[in-house]
Write a structure and sequence with these properties.
Length: 86
């Protein structure tokens, strides 16, 4: 999964989808997760980064991460990555 290329994300957590005109905001941790996703980081890398920086246990991270990702998908801000053929 990745964030759609046309989605604009400001340093303050303002998210704008120019294809729909919709805008959203996120908190600093959500913004950090969005930036890590845009960098192409995998879930395990994001988990390590967030749990190390924010004293959160693995179970809490996973629940909150899936909730956040689900919201991004519902808002149609993401696209599925194509799998590479080996």
């Amino acid at each position: 999964m990745s964030i759609k290329k046309n989605i604009a994300i400001s340093e303050s957590g303002f998210i704008f989808d120019p294809s729909t005109g919709n805008s959203f905001t996120t908190n600093p941790i959500g913004l950090e997760i969005l930036q890590l996703i845009k960098e192409g980081r995998e879930q395990n890398e994001i988990k390590k980064h967030i749990t190390a920086g924010y004293h959160v246990d693995d179970n809490t991270f996973e629940k909150d991460f899936y909730d956040f990702i689900s919201t991004l998908q519902q808002l149609k801000l993401t696209v599925e990555n194509e799998k590479k053929n080996d």
